[in-house]
Amino acid sequence: MNEPRLAMLLLGIPPLLVWSMARSRFHRHPLGLAFAMIVIALPCLAPLLVRELTSPMRVWVLAILALFLTLRSWEVLRLPAGRLGGWWRTTLFIYLWPALCYDGFLRPVGEDRWRRVAVKTLSASLRIPIGLGLFALGAWLGCPEKYWALDHLLKLLEIYIFMGGMHDLIVASFALLGLHLDDVFRWPVFSKSVLDFWQRYSRHVNAWLRANVFLASGGRRHPVPSILLVFIFSSVIHEYVFLVALGIEDNLGWQTAFFMLHGLVAITGLWAGRRLIALGIHIPRVFKIALTFTFIYFSSLLFMHCMDAMMTFHEGGIGTRLLNWAMGR
After folding, report:
1. Is 99 left (phi over 0), alpha (psi -120 to 50) or beta?
2. pLDDT tens digits for range 219-257
3. 0.85 exceeded by the pTM?
4. I need a labelling partner for 45 at 20 to 30 A (CA). Which of 164, 265, 295, 325 fits?
């Protein structure tokens, strides 16, 4: 059997078994749990089989897909018996639902359906062209060779604006079908702390981490180890998706450094915030937003190291192709 077919089997078959495992509850036994963990992790092997056959970007997307299948499969396994739906419903959640948590799955959109469709469609029609325009602007300015600092700022804005616009289209599409889907971003540029940033950014992943890592490890009863575990888990899954796509050489450890730095700063900020409140010291919101944005800007250089190795944003890459298309070259 060739590698692509085996990769498709690894992506397709294990999640189909999840419903049977969850219904039988045999994973409540330690040996059953070990077997279930192996089964739901099998999709993560699929990108390794095709990494030599296609581009790093496609392998990266496939790795994210495989990881999401695994995370949703675990979400199904941990559901109480009374909340587990039928086989078709469970399979629909694992394969097609954009969010990672079962809470809110197939929730009706409510009376504001058409308003939500209109608002999200308008938002996407603005954000996607602006994001593409920023790619082209970076190429036109000669980034990163001429302006590395501006180059990095444009990359952060492009990820936020363009990807936010694409998700707006998904939200609008689901609203058309009568289904509610939460926004993936909630204005992270206005975050007042590192913890606030991660609660606003990639909210679907944040919700899964909160339910399956933070609360499972003690939550607010033991906030420091629970927060650290969340960032450790985040570093592991990000190391996986980038190392599968790019290889270990010159790429190992960057995501761990980024997320562990954020974890330590998040815990420090939590402690400092409580101390300031106890002392009756109030820090203006604008100052907290500016300080958080500055930290995110500089610390994200660690994260973007792997992104830069996988794709070229501006000169000679996406931005140049968009600029040439716009100028009819």
Report:
1. beta
2. 888 899 999 999 999 999 999 999 999 998 889 999 999
3. yes
4. 164
